[in-house]
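Reference record
================
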Amino acid sequence: MWIKQKAVWRKAGSSVCNVNPVPEVKQMGVDWQLLLRTAIILGITFLTVYFVRRFFRGLNKRTQKQSLYNKFFQSILTAGITIIGVYSALGSFEIAKEISTTVLQSSALLIAVATFAAQQTLGNVISGFSLSSSKPCDIGQKIQIKNGGTVIAEGIVRDMTVRHVVVEQADGQTCIIPNSVVDSSVIVNMSNPDTVATFVEVEVDYATDIEKARKIIMEILKTEPLVVEAEKTSILVSALTANGMLLKFAVYTRDIMESYLACSNVRQRIVSEFDKAEILIPYNTVTIDAQDAIVQSTQMQMAMNEAQEQKAPPENPVEGFEKDHYLTKPEEKPEPEKETQ
């Protein structure tokens, strides 16, 4: 009997508990699994970017040359991997999913606004693809960028990114030019030719033996170590000036950087060798005769003194005013005589 009552009470208690259940409290805590997943995605993203950069760095070492195409493709690949990785990591959160849904619902309007706002940036990216595919220049080459007849930049190409091209000039300044500007400009590549020609002009007197001067210049070109292909150089009389004849010839070097030093050496040796051969290089002179200069100076001083004496004011300023007709009495006219009867 006791056992049955106990069982009944247990059954009744269980039924009471089922009728009035205790509400379940949901604990708010940190979702460590979600954070771990986000960290793994970000870690894989950054490791992928690191290995991509290392791959291109090793490729440049093997080829011993930095390619403009490789540099641009590395920038595009790095940016794409970073965007995909960050989007995948943020997509695990509920708030990011809600934002993505909202963005997708208004995607047409957002695309139109983004395209209008970033049209210059998109133009630079498209121009970068055009430059990397056509390859008008490469990393380490010397170029000149002209737009409308004006030289924008002249120097060595150091880098190319998704947005711009980096050009280092001879004075040490770095020009960062957008890809769209480079793509629409005239690019003069100074590194492609096998040789670079720089013209040098020398003026000689009319009494000079031209053939003798040509032989001296040709000998200088042949013995200059930086000059190449001296045999194909032609020394021509390009103009007749008021002082003499103008000789013009080309100095050929391997690249533009050697051209400055080679032309400097050639000019210096021409002055020295022409002086030894008594070939006159005319220049303007001024001859002054000391005796004539003293006489002319004395005459000018005397003329200036005479001019000052003529314009000198009177010693007594009152005398000058007395002569003024405003201060003098008007002349009295004689009265007419009366007629006498």
Remarks:
- The radius of gyration is 47 Å.
- The first helix runs from residue 2 to 19.
